[in-house]
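Homework help thread (please don't just give me the answer)

Our assignment gives two proteins as sequence + structure token strings and asks us to describe the second one. The first is just a warm-up. Here they are:
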Amino acid sequence: MNNEEELQSQIEKSATTGHGLDSRSYQVIFDALKKEPSFKLSNSFEDKVIQKIEERKEAAKDAAWIWIGVASFIIAAVASIMLTGFKFNSFNFNVGTFRFLAGYPGLFIFGTLFVLGLQLLDKKIIRPSIGE
């Protein structure tokens, strides 16, 4: 017998002879532990657990690739800034490239809503239909 079983048998012996609150509490606990549980695991429980473990491994791989991508982007940005001699103090953001949109506010709003609609369509209809 191991140490835990010896301890349990000693507690059971003292619980049957004692009349205190501790002895009754131990007796209730041991009686509850001797009963079989009222629920049964499904046959596919093991498969579901294994599938969740594999999904977590995949998620960890995906997270690693994301961090590699972020680090690569930062390294590329720093390298391009250093190689081009970009100066932050002389940086003047010019929105002149987008001035043509000032005359077409409806086009800008339509384009934005169209792209958002395509994303929603992809998420709700297309991906579930192909099983992703």
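The one we have to describe:
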Amino acid sequence: MAGKRNPSELIILFATIAALSTLAYGCSKALPRSIDLPSDLDIERQFDWALVTTAFASLKTEALRTSPEAGKLSGGTVFAPKARKIDPSGRDQGGFWYLYEEEGRSGWIHEGDLSFHKTKGQALESRTGR
């Protein structure tokens, strides 16, 4: 009979179907292309000194563009940032914020207003070259 199969062939056929189904199911899961980091993630410092490169930089009460202003820093100000945070909207859209704490004032400054230097001397030298 042409329609009758050997039992070992049926076992192999069912095992193959099960394996292919498992493989197809596993490959169909969409994995995220990125991960969401906490918005307040403190990142290990990779900088030593910051220089305000714009005429004035806004100090914000929080590391967020829409937060209230806590004051301003003049262009040419050199300081050692105390912390760095990722903007809640993400690194690509919001960038990094750096904490200024000196002279009884504090606030967050956006990376777009700063340049970074390994030494205070390099930052001061860069200030004169503006």
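TA reply:
I won't write it for you, but here's a hint about the kind of observation we're looking for: The chain has three helices and eight strands.
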